[in-house]
Amino acid sequence: WGNWLNVANVTMSTVHSFTTCWNADSVEFCPAAGLHDFLVCGNYELNEATKTREGGIYLFDLSTTADGEFQPTQCVLSPGVLDLKWSFADGVAILGQASADGVLRIYSLSNPASTKAHTLSSVQDLTVCEDALCLSLDWSNRISKRAACELIVSRSDCCLSLLSMDTELREIRSWRAHEYEAWISAFDYHQPSTVFSGGDDSMFKGWDTRTNCDTPLFVNKSHSMGVCSIHCNPHEEHILATGSYDESIRLWDTRKLRAPLSETAVGGGVWRLKWHPQRPDLLLAACMHNGFAVLQRHGQVGMQSVETYNQHGSLAYGADWSFAGSTTDTARIGSCSFYDKLLNIWQCHLPDPPAASHC
How many CB atoms sit inside 10 A of residue 351's CB? Predict the structure, then answer.
């Protein structure tokens, strides 16, 4: 179980470690019922000799992992992976990949009759942009659980692309959303016709996808540097978190977006944010130069870091909660770092929920 650490009376330990072949930037646990022990790790690396972008997806099954034997069950080769996200559709395990070649790739995790092992298999793909990178993606069905849903993709050419996923993947519309790279895009899970985006222009914006998206719903420049992470709280309507290269996390009420509810300094650029699978008060953050943090929200008085994890030697990029190993008082977390190519699985005990949480 590795070394135990205590921060603010929250106890944690590293359970497993794995070194990837390429730079590691994304970790996602499968949310599908019966498949919570599966996780994927995405990788991206520029081959300096050939000037090509390389990478792949590692698939792990923690239910078959013995002590000291943490190895992938599959590796899917692909042009560099910038982001991975699972669909929340009922009854299936569908994974989306934002790729460095401008393609959105869709995979299915299944157990074919010819094999005992679950594997990722390509379902379909769509070229979103010819001369740019797909930087992030999100699914609209976190709450609805419907298979027929939409995806939003942010791109290195400043644009966003709204896609439809039904019998086939198709583009609904694309539009220029930022002046520089659109690092992140995310749905309002409670009102999926609303999309949020963040860019290297330091802008945090909202969009009504029922329109042609010529004009944003709002433009906010509260962050002083590029906005690179956004996540809507799936448990509590109107609560949203954003993170930035300015090393702060801002908490928002989406009904009052002129100013954030709170600002929390975390000592590193915030590349990814993930709300806890069951608890509305806990937020996981990948803080680039300052490791990983678990933060607890206390109503409108802000957020407090209750756990820090610094067992990585490079930029903290990917982070996610396990749906199986995370309960109201314990959590199993996956994290990965870029240049040292390290994927870690760690366990921690969580603080009690606040007595009351009202925003």
Answer: 16
Q: What is the mean pLDDT of the chain?
A: 93
Average pLDDT over residues 316-332: 88
| Main-chain phi, psi angles of 60, to 5 degrees | -125, 145
What's at 200, amino acid-wise?
D
Beta bridge partner(s), residue 342: 19, 337
DSSP annotation of 193 reads T
d(C-alpha 131, C-alpha 181), whole Å: 13
| Predicted local confidence at residue 243, as pLDDT | 98
Other CB atoms within 10 Å distance of the CB of residue 47: 12
**What is residue 59's DSSP assignment?**
E
* pLDDT of 68 strictly over 80: no
Calpha distance 86→258 (Å, rounded): 32
Q: Which residue has the higher pLDDT, 285 or 301?
A: 285
Q: What is the pLDDT at residue 325?
A: 65
Query: Of 301, 287, 305, 289, which is closest to residue 351 (Cα–Cα)?
Result: 305
Question: Mind listing the pLDDT tens digit for each residue in 228-268?
Answer: 999 999 999 999 999 999 999 999 999 999 999 999 999 99
What distances in angstroms separate CA 324 from CA 31, 33, 146, 177, 348, one per listed residue?
9, 9, 21, 37, 14
Query: Rounded to 5 degrees, what are φ and ψ at 355?
Result: -60, -35
Burial of 138 (0-12, 13-18, 19+ CB in 10 A): buried
CA nearest neighbour of 83 among 105, 59, 113: 105
Q: CA-to-CA distance for 320 and 339, rounded, in angstroms? A: 19
pLDDT of residue 356: 59
Residue located via tokens 């966003």: 160
Q: Which two tokens stand for residue 147?
A: 């298979």
CB 23 within 8 A of CB 341: yes
Residue 206's identity, in one-letter code, is: G
pLDDT at 332 over 60: yes
Whole-model pTM? 0.94
C-beta separation of 191 from 143 below 8 A: no
